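Deliverable D4.2, example record:
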Amino acid sequence: DYVNLPRAIRAADKVSFTLGVVGLLVTQFVATEHPTRFHVYYLATAPFIFSHRAYQYFVIKYHYFLIDFCYYANAAHFWQILCRPRSARFFKTTFAYANGPILWAIPLWRNSLVFHSHDKVQSVYIHCVPAILTWCARWYGQSALGEPGWRFSFFGSGDDDSRRRAAASAKASLELFSAETSFATSFAHFFVFPTLGYLAWQCAYLLKTELWDVKRLDEDPELVTSLRWL
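Output generated by the structure prediction step:
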């Protein structure tokens, strides 16, 4: 009887499927053809992803997920791009986040690229795109956002001088991010500083969920946190 039921595909599922496939293709195109501009693509797309997820999660009482570490790490990427673009130490911290706990969260939380589910596609984006972002920056550099002509050179246009300046900016960034350091310095940049940042988030998270909002969580069992979900 179940097999013989007529099938109906919701319009929302069609839209989610289309946007998911197109988004995957565009992400691959930018990462492979314009890697020095991938941070521009990230800045343009991430706010829409996070805004939609925030609205969706507040409606279904999942908004405590929005203070999980993956969102904290994505905020660190925004800070690195907008406020600390030439800080090699801070970039290495975000690199450690993106290629460590954020990627490990994909199998641990069973993220899957199900195109007809915008929630699942968004989860893959949140956990996977930071790794692509740091890969592009590590191996190709990040052109400065304020560089003359960077908006147009992203689309392959602009004058030769603007493109040369953008390329020189990306090269300088690459040399900064990939400069050789001692073992002690590398250990501090890739382990000590990221761990301190993680501990700062963990303390804030515990204060929020186990102290400040503990009464609210106890009174409303429909509120979902990572601990309750697991």
